[in-house]
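Work Package 4 report. The design task specified in the project plan requires that, given a folded chain encoded as structure tokens, an amino acid be chosen for each position. We show below one input record used in the internal validation round.
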């Protein structure tokens, strides 16, 4: 099966071509079936490869298709790499992606761009799969840029709305900043190790380390690590490049679910985990990742406290949860970061699709202040959304408890202060998520009578993915049970071959892993769960019987409600100065020099033309006379010279 790995990205590409080329001819149902079927086909192939891989878990197989670029000493193949890391990503992308496609068949059924939408979704899945299956950084970069393009197309899908177009452009431009860092990191990898293929680069790192040519904290490795992380900051929306992700809510809700749960924002996590050998020898880069992750987790969590748009709350939640994943990577807990990536894909896709179900029932309304009491009309959406909320809040035995608790435990072993900051962020997450839950589903309905008249549970195409994702959100923690339960950590065992190089470095340097005692872990769990339970109780008292209120009036609430005015700050210190500089360049360089030079050239040509046309008399005798004079001049010149 592993030799069929090329089918995994190719099937969505075929779906894109069919839906794209025949979008005006295919019936909507057929288009949805083709788009969903293509991703489901990829999922089935991935499952087959996964089952085969379980028999040989230490194998990392490269499947070459053809020589791609050969220039001088540089050569790279178009090849796919199948190992435990790429398989985890493939399963998440195709599995959750398929459910989002099925959901879209119901959610986008009445949209005039339905077929084009499925073409874009398939293209998005193709590029994301290319990103995680490529065997080298260059192929990863192609997928990286591809998902950036697709995010632009999907965020601005309803392009008749200028605000949505602005959001799409913002996502595209902000990501280009991070992509420059990634590109420079790749160039530095090539100049240092002479290759961009994963196996060759990582083997070279280990060889240079063993020979003493590279040591712990080598500047070139720190530089590579920082540059790659800058790319990850853009794709995975970390401070200061996070501002595009909340605005990405402009696209249809299935797009939000796809970006936030299964595809684009997870690319940065994947990049760092894939490059774990480099980061193991670059502790300064890991420290930067830890600081940025903690700062982002806290900062985004505070913004989520007073947001009223149901999708914006979830968007800032994603930014915050990505901060937790990077914090785990920053302390070297790469498996924990991947574990939370996986569980987050389940419950965040669930909640975005649940939010879409609510918006669908409310006739497009997204303001939480105009909702309330929806559990009466939408029992399936209510029940599944509750599971997602419990999971993200870290309530046992739901999946988020196990993955987030594992991150907190690893961070505590590294720094109790960092643990305390992440615990505060976790409590803030619980508060704003249950605020969202209570405002939407409990109390009295606060919308219009017309909205209330049309309230209903969503159709099965929408509720089926919710149910499946709710089950995964409930049981997903079984993949990473903690040691204190005396159960195997299946994900840790499965991903162990990815970190063999890292273990070799630690063994050579006699670096021991810090494991918390079971009593300490139980204490941390007790503190966390008790604090979370108290926050849920406080949120229920404040919002279960919420009365509609206006905009915040206090300075503190206004500051957070307006997202700390970061967008306005960027506009003042970056956008406006650049616009003024561009205006100056236009007035001086463009108008004076460029236009002046072109006008001078034109005037010179016109003047010379007017002069030379005077000799064009039309008289044959004059022309003969000039010819004779010319011949005489040439003869004399030849004689004297």
């Amino acid at each position: 099966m592993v030799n069929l790995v090329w089918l995994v990205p190719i099937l969505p590409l075929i779906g894109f071509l069919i839906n794209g080329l025949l979008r005006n001819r295919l019936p909507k149902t057929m288009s949805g079936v083709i788009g969903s079927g293509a991703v489901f086909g990829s999922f089935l192939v991935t499952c087959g490869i996964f089952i085969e891989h379980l028999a040989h878990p230490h194998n990392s197989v490269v499947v070459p298709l053809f020589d791609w670029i050969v220039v001088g000493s540089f050569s790279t193949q178009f090849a796919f790499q199948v190992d435990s890391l790429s398989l985890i990503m493939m399963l998440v992308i195709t599995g959750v992606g398929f459910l989002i496609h099925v959901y879209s068949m119901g959610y986008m059924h009445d949209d005039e761009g339905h077929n084009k939408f499925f073409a874009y979704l398939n293209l998005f899945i193709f590029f994301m799969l290319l990103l995680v299956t490529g065997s080298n950084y260059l192929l990863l970069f192609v997928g990286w840029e591809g998902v950036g393009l697709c995010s632009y197309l999907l965020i601005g899908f309803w392009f008749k709305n200028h605000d949505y177009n602005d959001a799409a452009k913002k996502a595209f431009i902000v990501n280009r900043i991070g992509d420059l860092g990634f590109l420079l990191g790749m160039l530095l990898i090539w100049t240092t190790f002479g290759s961009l293929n994963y196996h060759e680069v990582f083997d070279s790192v280990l060889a240079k380390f063993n020979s003493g040519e590279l040591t712990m904290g080598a500047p070139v490795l720190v530089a590579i690590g920082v540059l790659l992380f800058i790319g990850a900051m853009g794709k995975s929306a970390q401070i200061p490049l996070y501002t595009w992700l909340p605005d990405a809510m402009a696209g249809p809700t299935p797009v939000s679910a796809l970006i936030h749960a299964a595809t684009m924002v997870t690319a940065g996590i994947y990049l760092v985990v894939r490059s774990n050998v480099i980061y193991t020898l670059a502790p300064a880069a890991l420290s930067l990742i830890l600081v940025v992750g903690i700062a982002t987790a806290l900062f985004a969590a505070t913004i989520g406290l007073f947001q009223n748009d149901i999708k914006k709350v979830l968007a800032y939640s994603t930014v915050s949860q990505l901060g937790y994943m990077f914090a785990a990577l920053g302390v070297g807990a790469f498996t924990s970061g991947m574990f939370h990536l996986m569980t987050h894909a389940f419950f965040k896709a669930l909640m975005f699709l649940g939010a879409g179900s609510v918006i669908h029932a409310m006739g497009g309304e997204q303001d939480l202040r105009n909702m309330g009491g929806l559990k009466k009309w939408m029992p399936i959406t209510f029940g599944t959304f509750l599971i997602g909320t419990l999971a993200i809040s870290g309530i046992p035995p739901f999946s988020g408890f196990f993955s987030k608790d594992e991150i907190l435990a690893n961070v505590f072993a590294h720094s109790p202060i960092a643990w305390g900051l992440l615990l505060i962020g976790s409590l803030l997450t619980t508060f704003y998520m249950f605020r969202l839950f209570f405002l939407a589903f409990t109390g009295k309905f606060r919308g219009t009578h017309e909205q209330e008249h049309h309230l209903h549970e969503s159709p099965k195409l929408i509720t089926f993915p919710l149910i499946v994702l709710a089950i995964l959100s409930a049981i997903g923690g079984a993949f990473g049970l903690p040691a204190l339960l005396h159960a195997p950590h299946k994900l840790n065992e499965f991903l162990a071959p990815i970190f063999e190089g890292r273990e070799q470095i630690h063994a050579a340097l006699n670096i021991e892993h810090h494991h918390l005692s079971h009593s300490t872990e139980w204490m941390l769990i007790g503190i966390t769960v008790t604090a979370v339970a108290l926050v849920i109780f406080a949120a229920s008292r404040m919002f279960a019987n919420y009365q509609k209120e206006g905009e915040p009036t206090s300075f503190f609430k206004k500051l957070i409600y307006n997202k700390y005015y970061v967008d306005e700050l960027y506009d003042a210190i970056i956008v406006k100065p650049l616009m003024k500089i561009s205006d100056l360049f236009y007035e001086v360089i463009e108008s004076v020099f460029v236009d002046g030079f072109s006008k001078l050239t034109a005037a010179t040509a016109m003047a010379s033309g007017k002069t030379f046309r005077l000799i064009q008399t039309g008289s044959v005798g004059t022309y003969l006379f000039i010819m004779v004079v010319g011949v005489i001049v040439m003869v004399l010149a030849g004689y004297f010279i």
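The beta strands are 61-71, 74-82. Validation will be extended to a larger panel in the next phase.
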